[in-house]
């Protein structure tokens, strides 16, 4: 289902020109042109602030609740290994991969630059390590950065976080939403093999189903309003790849007992 949501949303964004190219430094710091008339086009909408920004936390909480309230037959090491592997994949793509995250490496390899957007609308190019640090810079903390040109006159208290722009800005939101949706849908399957659910497990199943619905809706709004079509498709494909990688530990755990049985 997530495939259809991303595809339909991306096609809609192209046909009706509703998306904002977030890799364009001239546009990304500006409000979405449709923000005044389309609630979900605003970056500060509740869905983005309270859910998508904390997507893996919500996904992990839903998984652990469903896993922990299940029966011994469903509370398996295989299921837990898939969540742990998916968490590691999320970290590799979005936080750290022997240095910068994999998504950041893709942006730089495709011609991206570390850019600081100034209040005047101008942009200051910085060394990539400033973007990797994800820390704010200001005339007070980094005066040398602002001395290169007399046109950059800013108060010392002004600060901003530089971002990677201009390259292929893979949609991290589509990546994490795809990975989360597929993982939660897979982890719900064992619950439906049970003849009875305890009250806590019933709550967990319904909460997980509700979160899957939220992730699908969020995938749709992101596909319609943000990133270029190619960046959304790349995010989706990386989400699929992350989900596939998360299956490997579970597959190894399942196959190992079989190998022992055959060898005996």
From TrEMBL:
Membrane-topology descriptor: Multi-pass membrane protein
GO cellular component: endoplasmic reticulum membrane
This protein's UniProt keywords: Endoplasmic reticulum, Hydrolase, Lipid metabolism, Membrane, Transmembrane, Transmembrane helix
One of the protein's GO biological processes: lipid storage
Entry annotated with the keyword Hydrolase: yes
Pfam (any one): FIT
Main location: endoplasmic reticulum
Domain of life of the source: Eukaryota
Molecular function per GO: coenzyme A diphosphatase activity
Regions that span the bilayer: 55-71, 83-103, 172-192, 204-227, 233-254
Keyword Transmembrane: yes
Localization per record: Endoplasmic reticulum membrane
Protein name according to UniProt: Inositol phospholipid synthesis and fat-storage-inducing TM-domain-containing protein
């Amino acid at each position: 289902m997530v495939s259809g949501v991303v595809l339909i949303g991306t096609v809609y964004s192209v046909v009706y020109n509703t998306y904002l190219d977030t890799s364009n430094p001239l546009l990304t710091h500006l409000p979405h042109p449709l923000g005044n008339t389309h609630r979900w086009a605003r970056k500060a909408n509740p869905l983005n602030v309270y859910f998508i920004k904390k997507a893996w936390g919500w996904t992990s909480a839903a998984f652990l609740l469903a896993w922990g309230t299940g029966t011994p037959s469903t509370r398996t090491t295989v299921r837990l290994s898939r969540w742990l592997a998916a968490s590691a994949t999320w970290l590799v793509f979005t936080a750290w991969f022997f240095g910068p995250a994999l998504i950041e490496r893709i942006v730089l390899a495709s011609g991206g630059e570390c850019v600081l957007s100034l209040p005047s609308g101008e942009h200051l190019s910085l060394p990539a390590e400033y973007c990797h640090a994800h820390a704010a810079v200001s005339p007070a903390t980094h005066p040398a950065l602002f001395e290169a040109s007399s046109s950059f006159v800013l108060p010392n208290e002004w600060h901003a976080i530089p971002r990677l722009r201009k390259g292929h800005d893979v949609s991290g939101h589509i990546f994490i939403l795809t990975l989360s949706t597929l993982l939660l849908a897979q982890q719900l399957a064992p619950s439906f093999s049970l003849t009875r659910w305890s009250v806590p497990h019933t709550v967990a199943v319904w909460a997980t189903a509700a979160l899957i619905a939220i992730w699908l809706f969020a995938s749709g709004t992101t596909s319609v309003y943000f990133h270029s079509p190619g960046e959304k498709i790349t995010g989706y494909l990386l989400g699929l790849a992350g989900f596939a990688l998360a299956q490997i530990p579970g597959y190894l755990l399942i196959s190992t007992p079989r190998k022992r049985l055959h060898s005996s």
